[in-house]
Amino acid sequence: MKRALAFLLIFSGLTIICYPSGKNLYIDYLQQKMIRDWENGENGFLEAKEAINSFSQLTDIFSEALTEAPALAADTSAQEQSVQSDKKTEKKAEAEKPQILGTIEIEKIGVRLPILKGASRENMKYGAGHLTGTDYPGEIGNAAIAAHRSRTFGRMFNRLGELEEDDTIVIKDRNQTFKYTIFNTSIVSPDDTSVLKRNGEDQLLTLITCDPVDKATHRLIIHARLVP
């Protein structure tokens, strides 16, 4: 019994250590799958979303294995409540299934992400979000797209700060490819909405992420202009 418990503790510890890297690789795979499904006329978001949520739950599961004794079997009532809860979650997920608008690619920093309609907390777990109320890519106005940064190198918009004037950003939808050239980068306060201004003439793109990575007290803004 002691030997089995020791093995379980060692296995669980190694799993927790390896989990962050494994999770990142898995989410990368699912992001690219979402893009492939979208390119093929499918919407694989719901499947990817459920998979990521399930995978994320492993953190708690593995952590509990280190501190808890073998769990007692749940009673029938608890199981029935769990089943009902799962059904409600599935219906809610289907109702809230988001729309993939296209992709954003920034070759210089290795970015290729799906763009989801709406920069909600849920959407931004899986890709970049288009800010509701801003223009769409390719239109005259200002299309704003936001994504997270993290401490893991290359995650989402993690390396956005490496971009410079004249670097290229490519946005694709089902029908067109839009190429933008960066003309300005800035750090602003979270309540500075001037970054979303339109001038009524240009087709602008604004990328938004938090800054710095570990505190997120400000916003890193990248402004780009559509190449004719």
Outline the fold blueprint.
Layout: H1 2-39, H2 45-56, H3 58-67, H4 76-95, E1 100-106, E2 111-117, E3 128-130, E4 141-146, E5 168-172, E6 177-188, E7 203-211, E8 218-226
Parallel strand pairs: 2-3, 4-7
Antiparallel strand pairs: 1-2, 1-5, 3-4, 5-6, 6-8, 7-8
Written description of the protein model:
The chain is an alpha+beta fold and 228 residues long. The protein folds into 2 domains: 96 residues, no CATH class; 127 residues, Sortase (Sortase, Chain: A, Beta Barrel). It is built from 4 helices and 8 strands, in the order H-H-H-H-E-E-E-E-E-E-E-E. An 8-stranded mixed beta barrel has the order 1-2-3-4-7-8-6-5. Helix 1 packs antiparallel against helix 2 and helix 1 runs antiparallel to helix 3. The longest helix has 38 residues.
